[in-house]
Amino acid sequence: MKQKHILVVDDEQNTLRSMEFILEAANYQVSVAKNGYEALNVLSNETGSPIDLIITDIQMPMLTGLKLIENLQEFSYDIPVLIITGYGNKQLYAQLLENGYNEILDKPIEEDELLRCVKKLIDNGNQSSK
């Protein structure tokens, strides 16, 4: 079975490396980016296996997670997104839920919760593309 490919986007190096470690240990292929611009670059230069899921922080310098999501929609990328944040508030959650993003995790992220959300989003993404 082919490994699923996940792009993790976060400006916090410790969070980025921790998620990379957890996901690789769970047998996922992982690419990383430190901000939204790097993530868009990874997506546009994709030559290997396609990205099956994007995990992005919301608060990042240069191009925020919200702007990254807007760009994904604008360029018609049909990739599930898991949102992580250390700055969650009710208004942000309401905005994300209104736009169809049901999987939002608060930092610090629990390994079991991360893997549950990843599996759910990848499985749902595969079902919608059939």
Are there runs of 5+ residues with pLDDT below 50, and where? Answer: none
CATH topology, which one? Rossmann fold
Shape: globular
In DSSP terms (H or I, runs of 4 or more residues), the helix count works out at 5
Head-to-tail CA distance between termini: 17 Å
Over the alpha carbons, how many angstroms does the gyration radius reach? Answer: 14 Å
Instruction: Let me know the number of strands.
Output: 5
CATH superfamily: Response regulator
What CATH architecture do you see? 3-Layer(aba) Sandwich
Largest sheet features: 5 strands, parallel
Class from helix and strand fractions:
alpha/beta
Determine the fraction of residues in helical runs and give it as a percent range. Answer: 40-55%
Strand content: 15-25%
Please report the first level of CATH classification, the CATH class.
Alpha Beta
- In round numbers, the mean pLDDT is 87
Give a verbal description of the structure.
The protein has one domain (5-122): Rossmann fold. 45% of the residues lie in helices and 18% in strands. The protein contains five helices and five strands. A five-stranded parallel sheet has the order 2-1-3-4-5. The relative contact order is 0.17.
